[in-house]
Amino acid sequence: MTSLFDPARIGDIPTTNRVVMAPLTRNRAGAGLVPTDLAVEYYRQRASAGLIVTEAAQVMAEGQGYLDTPGIHTPAQVAAWKKVTDAVHAEGGRIVIQLWHVGRISHVSLLPGGQAPVSSTARNAGGKVFTKEGFVDTSTPRALRADELPGIVEAYRHAARCAIDAGFDGVEVHAANGYLIDQFLRDSINDRTDDYGGSIENRTRFLAEVMNAVVGEIGAGRTGVRLSPVTPVNGAGQDSNPQAVFNRAVERIAPLKLAFLHVVEGQTGGPRDVAPFDYEALRTRYKAGHDAGAWMVNNGYNRQMAMDVVSTGAADLVAFGRPFIGNPDLVRRLKEDKPLASLNPKLLYGGGAEGYTDYPAL
Question: Which residues, at least 6 apart from 270, have a Cβ–Cβ distance to it below 8 Å?
């Protein structure tokens, strides 16, 4: 029987346990949107996780949606992230970076030249984003032309190469939570009439192109993807048939033999039962191929749930988000069944060391 605390192999990445630190936006990047020395310490403190998935990092300047989020597309960003990966590796940890394009979840003040955000649609998300002025309404996007999409696919490929150059063990493509790729997947957002809209085959095309480009650049064994089939965050209304569209999405990427697939069950950071969905049907499709990668589950898992889902074989890895903020030694606390410390919600976004690197270990 497999334990949550047993070693694993995630594609080409060996890990010491099956507890994953989920991506957590903290809005503390420095000038040039590079991670700072504080970020080096923050990730070093949490290196006992079997795998760290970093905060989302935009793959291009036009992909930014919140103040002071780091990028992974310039030489300065690569050099700064190298300090992070070196620190994690020195502690015996493994770390991948989440590749991000927010699409319409943005504001003109955050984008080059004050340009409008881009998306599968020209409809406003009706949400909020964090800017210098605090939380403000999202700006109305423009719909991407089909001839612009290869350039965005190329940005993902370039960012993946930058990640490997920065010393990351791999990448996780962010295709969840109502951001750009999800904006193509869901018919509640995607109102296109071209080859990237309408049918399920068309709406899953952009995801497939991005994943093929990233795998082609850095290899499947270092590539993962995150999906959130029913989460309603960031203005992402339910698809008319989420089971069908996400089944097909997984069928299209399963043959790539990715290192892992990271699925958010229910509403990200909220109820697990927000809408009916058969996650086992996704897992069956993902695992159908020979040498299928790890199945990573996420959302509201406590210690017992996590141990049970791994011991029964229903998941290979369990991702924890906010518990890792207040508990840099979360793996030890889970293993020894120690109490978990609380985080300070007022210090989640922006700021310095307080509420970031000053949470004590046991």
Answer: 231, 233
Please state the pTM of the whole predicted model: 0.98
Give the C-alpha separation, 262 to 173, whole Å.
Answer: 10
Q: Which residues contact 147 (CB under 8 A, 6 or more apart)?
A: none
Find, among 271, 278, 263, the residue nearest to 316 by Cα: 263
* CB proximity list for 178: less than 8 A, separation 6 or greater: 105, 125, 127, 189, 231, 233, 234, 235, 236
What was the pLDDT predicted at 290? 61
Among residues 179, 286, 301, 359, the one annotated as catalytic is 179
**pLDDT (average), residues 69-78:** 98
CA angle 219, 284, 169 (to 5 degrees): 25
Q: In angstroms, rounded to a whole number, what is the distance separating the alpha carbons of residues 84 and 76?
A: 13
What gap in Å lies between CA 304 and CA 191, rounded to an integer? 42
Active-site residue flag, 286: no
Single-letter amino acid code for the residue at 196: Y
Place of tokens 């996704």: 282
